[in-house]
Amino acid sequence: MKKVITIILGAIILVVAIYFFLPEILFGTAWGQKFFLNMEGEDVAYFYFKENQKSKDTIYMRGVIYSNTHNDIRQTLNNNPQLTTLVMEDVPGSIDDEINLLASREIRSRNLNTYIPDSGMVASGGTDMFLAGKERAVHETAKLGVHSWSGGDLEALEYPRDHEEHKKYLDYYVEMDIPTDFYWYTLEAAPADTIHWMTLPEIGKYQVVTNALDLNKMLRLQKRLASDAFKGRGAGDNQLAQEVILSYFESINLKAFENGYKYSFPFQDENSGEEKTGTNLIGYVEGSKYKDEYFVIGAHYDHLGVVNDTIYNGADDNASGTSALLVLAKYFSIYQPEHSLIFAAFDAEEHGLFGSRYFVNNPPVKFSGILMNFNFDMISRNPKNEIYVVGTLPYPQFKPLIEKQAENSPLTISYGHDNPKDKTKDYWMYASDNGPFFAKDIPNITFSEEDHPGYHQPTDDFENINPEFYRNVVRLIRGSIEAIDQNYPAAEINSSSN
Ligand SMILES: [Zn+2]
Hints:
The chain is of the alpha/beta class.
């Protein structure tokens, strides 16, 4: 009898122990973590190459970081020493922060770059791992989430600031060169059981990305806009190009004026004489200091369209300026300028500057608030590596600021095409979308290269551009806009003095 009672008692104790402690024991094992995550419809983190992947320098990651992740990443890196980039597609978090920080340090020590791709989602512990990338970039449709943590009964913010629990994260961010403010911001951003999706200005403020000017994206956009499907983006028939530009505006949350992004206007087709409708696409980034003072960053997106069944793709003229405009809009959404910046993709330039003229006659803001215009027209094709900066003769106040940028540029930077008396060069002050601004005495600077054999020819194709030249021009443009934004010079001398 005594023996039976002992057995029953033992069985009860065992059942109770299993009930209370087994999940905890199991959760301490990789197998158990996998089991519990699978029950919640999640996967544990895994690393893989895509089928048909050409080069093996990029590896992809999905799933929740868990106790095996440090081993997995170490093994993956040992087996693939050629890896340069970790693409984090869907990494919603971590269930083992100690392991996560070890795995992340491994990523940094191997100089891996991290990237969150189109429609990617990375949050919580995944965000910490993302920060381990040496170079870090985020696709404009990707989501990056942060939140606070809780330990036991306390939320992170209830621990004193100098508590050991904070220190392990703060040490990690210091090592990753992330401002420690980022850590305190994540604790405020959302409680432990929810997620805050970072905005582009937050991503800029906390140095979350290293690569805010996405020149690879720019080249992909140019290639796309200059592909046959876009029918040469002929004004009046460039719906597809409009959709690409508008969806990019939306993806970076570019602000719209009260009438939205689209501004239609009538124009006359240069060739057929037909009355058609053109469409400017316009958004803006608000300035941090001078909200009501605007720089207009403009580029025309139309080209010649289809002529006698031949598609004129206009890769350089002016898918180059358009794509630069788009990635600059993203860049300045991440790093807020002091002045407000209007990003304007103009239509019907090729028929006679209709879009930009409509803009200056019907501005979406008070005309007197428009301080200046930057115009990009043909900036990706010059085998001599030479770019023209046009407008510094009538507006010399900008020249020293641009020259300062030019010091660090591998380009040959020439000034000119802005003197009507110089008969050795075409006069470009009315030759592109800067013209209508110039006509109304709005200071303007145009970036453009000399005409090339593909100018207004069907051979103005993506294959014929000079990608490195193009990248360097856009770096120069970015620097010039920033310098002028931060040191907007007094316009004592203007076009009237010439
Ligand atoms: Zn053009």
